[in-house]
Design a protein that fits this description.
101 residues, alpha+beta
């Protein structure tokens, strides 16, 4: 969720807001030539967010990367913690319990 709806998109939006603020306030620091009418191109912001999400997914979050790190990936399941070491997975093919050390 962090990659798709949490940290990544929110931090990208916050960074955009900071960039706009810095541009609007630049003249008080002696920076000249920045238009007083600073605006944000929402389409480009969304493209930036999407490219960040895709990069993180490909290098950190994809099932292939996780499996290469020795993590079992189960897609299409609902997971519920049973206790500190066990998780119940329920899907179309039934239910199973996974135990972690």
């Amino acid at each position: 969720d962090c990659t798709w709806v949490g940290c990544v998109p929110s931090k990208a939006l916050i960074r955009c807001a900071h960039a706009c603020h810095e541009a609007r306030c630049a003249e008080r620091f002696g920076v000249k030539g920045i238009a007083t009418e600073v605006s944000c191109d929402w389409h480009m912001v969304k493209q930036h967010i999407k490219s960040c999400q895709e990069k993180i997914y490909k290098q950190d979050d994809s099932p292939e990367v996780l499996e290469a790190a020795g993590i079992q990936v189960r897609l299409g399941c609902h997971a519920s913690f049973l206790d500190a070491h066990r998780m119940q997975l329920t899907g179309e093919s039934g239910s199973s319990v996974v135990t972690a050390e």
